[in-house]
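Ticket #4471: complex job returned nothing on first submit. Input attached below:
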Amino acid sequence: MNEHVFQVVSLLISLVAFAFAGWLFLWVKKQPSSNKKIAKAGLLIQQGARTFLRREYGVLAKFAGVAAFLILVFLPSPIWNGSFVENIVMAVAYIFGTVFSAISGKIGIEIATIANAKSAEAAQKGIKPSFMAGFRGGAVMGMAVVGSSLLGVSLLMLLTDDPTALLGFSFGASSLALFAKAGGGIFTKTADISADLTGKVELGIPEDDPRNPAVIADNVGDNVGDVAGMGADLFDSNVASMAAAIVMAVPLDLALGGTMNLNMVFAYAALGLLASIIGVATARIGKNGSPTKALNSSTYVTTGVYVVLTAAATFIFNFEWRIWGACIVGLLVGVIIGIVTDYFTDDSKKPVHFVAHASKSGPAFTILSGISYGLLSVLPAMVGIAVSALAAYKLCEPINPEFALQYSLFGISMAAVGMLSIVGMIVSNDAYGPIVDNARGLAEMGNLGEKVLAITDELDSAGNTVKAVTKGFAISAAGLTVIALLGAFISEVNTAAAELGVEGLTGFDIMNPMVFFGLLIGAAIPAVFSAMLMLGVDRNAQRMVAEIHRQFKEIVGLREGKEGVEPEYDKCIEIATSGAIKELIPAGLLAICATLLVGFIGGVQAIGGFLTGNIVSGLLFALFMSNSGGLWDNSKKYVESGHEGGRGSDAHKAAVVGDTVGDPFKDTAGPSINTQITVVSLVSSLMAVIFLTYSIF
Amino acid sequence: MNEHVFQVVSLLISLVAFAFAGWLFLWVKKQPSSNKKIAKAGLLIQQGARTFLRREYGVLAKFAGVAAFLILVFLPSPIWNGSFVENIVMAVAYIFGTVFSAISGKIGIEIATIANAKSAEAAQKGIKPSFMAGFRGGAVMGMAVVGSSLLGVSLLMLLTDDPTALLGFSFGASSLALFAKAGGGIFTKTADISADLTGKVELGIPEDDPRNPAVIADNVGDNVGDVAGMGADLFDSNVASMAAAIVMAVPLDLALGGTMNLNMVFAYAALGLLASIIGVATARIGKNGSPTKALNSSTYVTTGVYVVLTAAATFIFNFEWRIWGACIVGLLVGVIIGIVTDYFTDDSKKPVHFVAHASKSGPAFTILSGISYGLLSVLPAMVGIAVSALAAYKLCEPINPEFALQYSLFGISMAAVGMLSIVGMIVSNDAYGPIVDNARGLAEMGNLGEKVLAITDELDSAGNTVKAVTKGFAISAAGLTVIALLGAFISEVNTAAAELGVEGLTGFDIMNPMVFFGLLIGAAIPAVFSAMLMLGVDRNAQRMVAEIHRQFKEIVGLREGKEGVEPEYDKCIEIATSGAIKELIPAGLLAICATLLVGFIGGVQAIGGFLTGNIVSGLLFALFMSNSGGLWDNSKKYVESGHEGGRGSDAHKAAVVGDTVGDPFKDTAGPSINTQITVVSLVSSLMAVIFLTYSIF
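Support reply: We reran it on our side without changes. The output follows.
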């Protein structure tokens, strides 16, 4: 069999995903819509989201230009060492990575800002059509993300056969994810907090009231944060997991002859995409069925189909069953972590009830109990990641005693590939959330009545539940991927060391003071990074609140809701956009500069410690913040649904404080840490040769 | 020179500390007191504190009995292997450790509950005598802590010459610290929160109002948490740092001949005690001087004296200058970390102003900004610890190329000894805080008037500022000590491995899946441990609030403050005490059981990862929580002093929420993590042989 056949088939399957996405897109587009108010608000949201993306991609283009130039000069090794071709390939791969991710983000935003209005109007006919509009809208994004990541990786391997170039591609995806996730996270929470503070708190007008100048920015924020941001994040993790696996597979295949390991990576990744297509295509909701159940069951279908398909492929192509085992362990642990995470944020479980009850004693107790449960929630995920990494390692270690270390690290990377195999489904479910959240807002703005609002509320609540699960999944997947990247880093260093004729790496000894030095500094970075983002939200929200106050003061008749008087929505979008980019850059630079500093001081050993500390502390803070935030959000909703005094009670006021604290926790800082970890890992892998050559110690 | 002469001299110097403590005790006791109300309230506090200690030591005695029995049977190796004598020595050393620490805690509590009343009454004559009563009261505790730790260590070495027995002694100290620090922390915050919630919030009566049934428990709490708890914590760190250094010095001395390394440990530790005595003895405050300045300058005097004394000793006894360098690096970094920590909690600096200003937008912003600055504050300390460990390692590595690893790890342990050398001064400053805090309460209960209250307020505020510094210092010292304990663990494993004829350890490779497995689990423990303690405070406070409500309902005339009607203070103390012990035990067991589980599953490699993850994550959470808590406390005080709207404003209400959240952060969870880390490290070192022999993998 030709050595590239698996890559060609993967490429073709990625095109199937695009075709399916196109069909879904057209299906959503042809759903009926007639309400003028909804159409107008929907258009404003769409324009706002486009404004943000244009501005963000504009800044990103400059950043990527500088980065591509630096890559051209320095990576994988300085150009004066004669590595012209490699450097050009790397720079082009980097740009490809940003562009592919940007395009899938753009597709996701376009469909999400169409599907929201469709879902709102469909709700007039019942929960089923409304759910389908939201779900299929989200699925377009899901298919675009996995399709373009598999397309990019297989295309690049077909063209270059150079796994290191994949790291460049992956770094491009990470750069974009940093902007999309952290920038989008700052945008969305700036708008959300400002809208709540001025609207609900100061003026006492309802959420999504069209008089509020921040209301469109708030709806835009849901899309840029959760659709484009989460999509870019999982695009990034997905590409990184494949890149790490391929970086380790190629030297193994070279040493052993054949292309089996490489083929396995492509086969398992492509089958994950197929399984996701089947899962999305079969998703159904009964006439009065539960949307949460429908979302979850489509995930389980995808998982089941994947296990069967990969087992068949392993049998047919005579793949190594141990590696299949590692892959399945990763997948199952990912699903289990998602389910356990759900416990901490589900409104029928103890933590939500406890926090709601504690709120009766005042906001301090809402905060303390939410933080406590958030801290408790890290244990199952940490144990899960630890167990899956250990199991994958131990499964694959005996495959070939001569390459025990290589195979065991490859096993971990395949566990990450397995965990991310159902990412198409996960992104679909995740993008569903903001679409139906927007639909709820549009239904309110379009005066569609209480009955329709009840339906959109139910869809929205399902979106929130599923979001907690997908976030737990995304963080764990990033964690396992970055452990795999640690293996890729060693592989890169050793390849370079062999060429330079210096000593390579077999690992990182904690008792080596350089490793320990890196470890402590790497561990501090996620804490500082997330603090900078949260302070950024704070500063940005202050600017926007000032703007809202100005509008209410200067625009006559706005406060009273006089017919024909409208706020200047675009000013708020402008503030959220420019502020997000301004606040994001120092945090991103901190992470990258710390990596360079540690690498130039302590070399590859210090970087090994740095990455380890960064992963461990990043996982802790990301899980803690995401879960506490989700818990507070649902506790507030639980109180609002009539418990512990219901709306307007003291418990409700306290629960709102918890929710406000939780917003930047779960939508800005927590999930951005993922991306920070991946960026730092990829910078390290790309700089491997430089650190090996130019470090002080 | 006889090999034990340094140990004998150390023992004598520890006796000097006791003599000096005795003199200070008598000085404080003979200060005048005449106010009957103060005497009565002071007596209640004293009795309450005694009740707590009696109950706590009672439970501890049972716990220690069980632990001593287990040690007798299993440690350092199972008794059926014929190690009768070693096991008996170890069990006795363990009991010694608990008893020595308990006695110094008892001394500290006794003097603190005398000095508070003396300081209150002395404030009528001015700030100078009031300060001196508070400071010298605290110094009794400081001298008792360092005196008894040095006495214990030198006595044990003189009697047994067995460094492993010192680990048993150290484990005894840790067990006590776990009870004193975590139990005391739960006690103090239960009482504080309940008193504030029912008194200030519900009834609108001032803090320290004698009608409040929780007021005495609150004052008792300051003593058991900050005097006995912090004392036990630093006793623990101090002993552990000496034990780690000695465990590494003895095999080095054996291999190289002579006792120089061991002598250095005793010399530097004993000189630290001398320097602290000089620092305490020369502490003075001008007639209208600043108490903060007086406290800080005594710390600087101690530091300076220590540098001079140790340099002289190194010159006279021809010690290794590189080791002296490591010791001084540790000390200076400790002082610098303290100063930097101060920035984040000082009410003249930006963070406090920022949080106070953010409070104007509501409690959610108080919380978000406080958490953000708390997360930022971890960076300088982490970098400081990383740099000092690296510097100590690199300084000492070249001493003897044949023993490069041993000397570099010994260097780190000497940096920890250096950092802890001024611990006498640190404990003195720390114990000063609750004494003058109590004095403020007593002055209020005794109706001593506004002028006196102003003086006690100033002394109290200095106590708070210094407390933030000493906490940063204590956490860093624990961090460096535990890194040293990691070295001690390797040393123990290797000694055992040599006897068993199996392979020893040279380090822990992060790419070893067992190490990584341990790392992830170890990192999760501090998060879960602190969450359990905070939930414990929450549950316990609910019990106490219910009791306070009962008293106000059932005791006629209490609410109105009728003459002769008194609340049942002892009921509240009883609830705080029994609840603290009940809530502490599961958290302590979790940490110990997780260690055993990981050790029995993955053996010494997994434990290496476990300890590393535990240290790194423990440092992060301890620093974050302590600093956020201190920041909120001072922001509230800053608002109360008239900024951002002052008392009663919305900003003040928000700042109070921050302070309430911060209380268990800074006084329960944050500093208890220290102790958790040390306990886990010592359990690991003691179980080294068992893990080496009986692990599954």
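The two ends of chain B are 48 Å apart (CA to CA). Closing as resolved unless it happens again.
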